[in-house]
């Protein structure tokens, strides 16, 4: 894990084949960091839905995984997302933010 801070923060789409291959052992490890990264990556992919029903189903599945993750920071984010799920679904579908 030592020296891998920026590897975890790097966007997988921008990684070279070599970087992705080197990152594989970290991703597939039993580390809490690996679990948190996988949960974060799934959340990132949920922003690309075009159907409200599918988006809601995806976010609910993500919420279930996040709450059961036993990672307190992830659980805290999951509770916040659950409170604001209607707004998140609207942002996903309309591609509009208030920022």
UniProtKB/TrEMBL annotation:
Domain Transposase IS204/IS1001/IS1096/IS1165 DDE: 1-99
Pfam families: DDE_Tnp_ISL3
Matches recorded under InterPro entries: Transposase_DDE (IPR002560)
Protein name as annotated: Transposase
């Amino acid at each position: 894990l030592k020296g891998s801070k920026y590897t975890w923060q790097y966007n997988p789409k921008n990684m070279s084949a070599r970087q992705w291959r080197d990152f594989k052992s970290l991703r597939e490890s039993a580390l809490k960091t690996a679990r948190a990264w996988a949960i974060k990556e799934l959340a990132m992919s949920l922003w690309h839905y075009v159907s409200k029903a599918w988006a809601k189903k995806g976010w609910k599945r993500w919420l279930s995984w996040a709450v059961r993750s036993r990672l307190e920071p992830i659980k805290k984010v999951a509770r916040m997302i659950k409170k604001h799920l209607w707004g998140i679904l609207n942002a996903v579908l309309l591609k509009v933010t208030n920022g």
